[in-house]
Amino acid sequence: MNITKNIKQIAKTVLINEAKAVENLTNFIDNDFEACVREIIQCKGRVVLTGIGKSAIIANKIVATMNSTGTPALFMHAADAIHGDLGMIQAEDIVICLSKSGNTPEIKVLVPLLKRRGSKLVALVSNTKSYLAEHADYVLNATIGEEACPNNLAPTTSTTAHLAMGDALAVCLL
After folding, report:
1. Smallest Cα–Cα separation from 132: which of 122, 120, 142?
2. Is 125 strand, coil or helix?
3. Rg (CA), the chain
4. How do 94-99 and 47-51 pair as beta strands?
């Protein structure tokens, strides 16, 4: 196969995979999504986004979008939170935790700490049966079929889906 043709086909396949995943998110805009938006609108504090790995990078971008659109938000890395940065969360804040699996060790340590503080917890996950989803007050479902990576490992489609769901949330909060 011509290498140029192969490159073009791979790129098209990635974009189609991710576009389908984003389109499928419309099926997950449910009562939890609506209740989450209402909770944030009534919030007297800030929205704190957190995550591990690539989810942390996406959380940072969602923070930037929220701040640009008038929703006070900040980022707290989940690993830093369990090592002392949890103090940055105020009683009035709402925490949105991004995680594809919802079962990472750091998240499993962080969730009980947040719940003990009385923080409202939103899970933005691709696994609605996860530890994070089961312990959250609200679940934003960003489930995907598969990653665009041929090994179904590299966070590609999942990060795109989480980013799109974050954008939908930010725009609803305008």
Report:
1. 122
2. strand
3. 17
4. parallel
User: DSSP letter string over 1-38?
Assistant: --HHHHHHHHHHHHHHHHHHHHHHGGGG--HHHHHHHH
How buried is residue 55: exposed, middle or buried, by Cβ count under 10 Å (0-12/13-18/19+)? buried
The residue among 61, 49, 69, 68 whose CA lies nearest residue 163 is: 61
Measured between its terminal Cα atoms, the distance across the chain in Å is: 49
pTM above 0.85, yes or no: yes
Q: Is-contact 101 130, C-beta < 8 A? A: yes
Which residue bears the tokens 């725009």?
Answer: 171
The tokens for 63 are 């923070």
Tokens encoding 18: 């991710």
Compute the mean pLDDT over every residue in the chain, rounded to the nearest whole number: 94
- Asked if 96 and 55 count as a contact pair (C-beta separation under 8 A), the reply is no
The DSSP H or E segment spanning 57 is helix 54-68
**pLDDT tens-place string over residues 135-172:** 999 999 999 999 998 898 899 999 999 999 999 999 99
Amino acid at 85: D
